[in-house]
Amino acid sequence: MPAASTVLEIRGLVRAFGGLVAVNALDLTVRSGEIVGLLGPNGSGKTTALNLVSGVLRPDSGVIRFAGLDIAGMATHRIARLGLGRTFQLVRVLDGMNCAENVRAGLAFHSAPLTRGDMQAAAMALLERVGLKGYDRRSASELTYIDRKRLELARALALRPRLLLLDEWLAGLNPSELLIGIALIRSLKDQGLSILLVEHVMDAIRSLCDSCVVMNGGRKIAEGTPETVLSDPAVIEAYLGAPLDA
User: Fold this and answer.
1) Which of 2, 73, 121, 140 is least surrounded by CB atoms within 10 angstroms?
2) CA 177 distance to own-chain centroid
3) 165 vs 72: CA distance, rounded Å
């Protein structure tokens, strides 16, 4: 079986804010059809890393190779059009619009413009894909928390991404919603989508991730399968704040 192709390659990525080095010489690879977990305690640099990949922030140095290009410092809309979608730690939907309009806002970023009819049909299909069938005319402001997350995901999928960045997409869900969310993410992988997943829900990490990278203080401290990294003493110390024999 041929090795999976590389979708995202990060080498030596650095970003500092004044004297704080939020991302320090990060190396990371995501291959085709793979879910990679980006883990670490709060403040370890995970969201900053996603912001660098998606173009929200410019790196101080390093390489971010996606779609055959070094996208480090490239404008966000250009990166999106290359096939990178993302959700945010704090859900971002357009409350003044209905659900179909929210998804059409994502469809508008296609390099080849869609007709009005094709755009509406695509929006309806994407809403159904994430479990929001029949919600097209419902205002985004009326949605429950999990449905707001679904809507944001549908808008990200509207870009037809090759790579999806999920920033704590499962956070705040109750146990039954969590099972639905895990199944939805797994179904995206089953369709061949590559995913870089920032998450704190350990059950989801064990269930979904092919491999994990763990950050602490901006640096990568561990890499491997979920079972390997979650049993690593350095990772346990990073989360708990003390050595195992303390």
Assistant:
1) 2
2) 18
3) 16
Q: In whole angstroms, what is the distance from residue 64 CA to residue 230 CA?
A: 26
CB under 8 A, 24+ apart: contacts of 107-112: 107/158, 109/77, 109/80, 109/81, 109/158, 109/159, 110/81, 110/159, 110/160, 111/81
pTM given for the model:
0.91
pLDDT (0 to 100) of residue 242: 57
Distance, CA of 103 to CA of 41 (rounded, Å): 32
Token code pair at residue 168: 């704590």
For position 240, what pLDDT does the model report?
A: 80
Rounded CA separation 159/68 (Å): 18
| Tokens coding 62 | 């390093």
pLDDT at 83: 92
The CATH code of domain 6-95+161-240 reads 3.40.50.300
Alpha-carbon span 114 to 107, nearest angstrom: 8
Please name which of 208, 168, 171, 202 lies closest in space to residue 188, comparing C-alpha atoms: 208
Give residue limits of the domains in the chain. 6-95+161-240
| Spatial separation of the C-alpha atoms in residues 227 and 39, rounded to whole Å | 13
DSSP letter string, 103-140:
HHHHHTT-SSPPPHHHHHHHHHHHHHHTT-TT-TTSBG
Q: Which of 174, 169, 222 shows the shortest CA–CA distance to 50?
A: 169
Mean pLDDT, each 10-residue run in order, the chain (246 residues): 80 96 97 96 94 96 94 93 91 93 87 81 96 96 95 94 95 93 95 95 94 96 96 91 53
pLDDT at 106: 87
Determine contact, residues 225/207, Cβ cutoff 8 Å. no
